[in-house]
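re: ur question from yesterday

yeah so i grabbed the chain u mentioned. its 242 aa long if i counted rite. heres the sequnce exactly as i have it in my notes:
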Amino acid sequence: MSITKALLGVGITGFVAAAVVAAPAMAWHPKGAIVKKVQNVTTNSVVADANDAAQALAAKPGDTLKYVIEVRNDGEATNDNGNDMAGTKLTDTLPEGVELVSDPAKRTITEDLGTLKPGQKVTKEYTVKVTSKQNGALIDNKACFTGDSEVKDNPQQGCDTAKVKVNVPETPKQPETPKPETPAPVTPKPETPATGGKGEESLPQTGAEGLGALAGTSALGYAAHTYVRSKQGLARALRLKK
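ran it thru and got these structure tokens back, copy pasting raw so excuse formatting
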């Protein structure tokens, strides 16, 4: 090989290498995001973000809740699909204290969201029933997503929570049924017999008092009868003497 050809070959190789180094790398940048909110359907509350205990949504045992989950791709739009978020999946494992209305036995919800273009979002909703009866219990429901770029060089993931605080209403006390009172025995008062006066009728008497009164009446009657008889006898004697 001549020296001229060798030098020419070295120059071409160096130029190609320089061109490869100078070429910019292809950028694949999806940008996933997730937001989870909750609403008390029973009380028709607002749809709250409820990310911490201070913002927890109030609910009672038996209330129906609606969870609203939004998964987005906030990446910048491109003409080559470089910022698409592919293979996006949503997973939500229900905590203790709630159960899925459509299937109480199901504890994990999984959604295949597919590919999300930059600026695209997908919203999922589902309803649960509050089963917790513990006053003050904090139900922390977390939803997560995963995804990646089309060439699988920029994995995406994230989670968000929505908290609910259980308030158990106080059971009103039942009024006590008053116990029936046992009436105290009444001792009859002895009646004082009325005395027969003028214009008054004597009450009938019984027992010893009655017998005494009867005896007195009989004696008076006998005395009066004797007095009358004696007066009549005296009158006859005077008539005969004349």
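noticed a couple things. Strands lie at 32-40, 57-59, 64-73, 85-93, 98-100, 108-116, 121-130, 138-148, 156-166. also The first strand starts at residue 32 and ends at 40.
anyway ttyl
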